[in-house]
Amino acid sequence: MAADNAVRPGLNAGRRRVFFALWPDASVQASLAKAAGSIHRMTHGRLTSAANIHLTLAFIGSVSLERLALLLAPPAEVVSRAFILTLDECGCWPRNGIVWAAPSKIPDALGALAANLERWLRAAQFELEVRGFSPHVTLIRHARCGQLMRSMAPVEWRVGSFSLVESQPRSGGSVYRALGTWPLAPVRSPCLRNDHG
């Protein structure tokens, strides 16, 4: 997924379908794609391509270019600290056949980032889903949900940024591209205490 910090010239026509997300590096994507492949043998369905694997923070939907410009300038108070996300649970929602991976423990910084984004977006009068934040990564769609084990081999993801992503529909499924990416605040190292003198 290519990342830009400015709107490309090609964005000047029409509306854009966008969402904020965490986007893993190639190593994490490969690990999750491998896990999805193992599960796929039991559930079948349509695998999420490795390049499209992500975790949605806030789905916004279709926006005008004017509103898009606002989304490309998140305020500093949205940013949380960098964190490690361990994806160690999996499951399947029978109502829509989605197989997902999720953390058994949500890092405080992830909860803070999602809450900060929601607060900012609602204040700016963007319409968001009513349901609470449930962090997960979609691995398979249209699956036949069977007796999946809830646990999976843990995948450790060092999260250091978040992105505004555009979803572009294609005949073979959506293609995603980052319109902007922002770093999270570095984790503070504990101060060394000097007990001498």
Structure report:
The chain has helices at 26-43, 65-71, 108-123; strands spanning 16-22, 46-47, 55-63, 83-93, 98-102, 137-141, 151-159, 161-168, 175-183. The strands form 2 sheets. It has a 5-stranded antiparallel beta sheet, with helices on one face. The chain has a 4-stranded antiparallel beta sheet with strand order 3-1-8-9, covered by helices on one side. It has one domain: Cyclic Phosphodiesterase, Chain: A (Alpha-Beta Complex), CATH 3.90.1140.10. By secondary structure, it is of the alpha+beta class. The protein is globular and about 45 Å long. It has 3 helices and 9 strands. It starts with 15 loop residues before the first strand and ends in a 14-residue tail after the last strand. The longest helix has 18 residues, at 26-43. Helix content is 21%, strand content 33%.
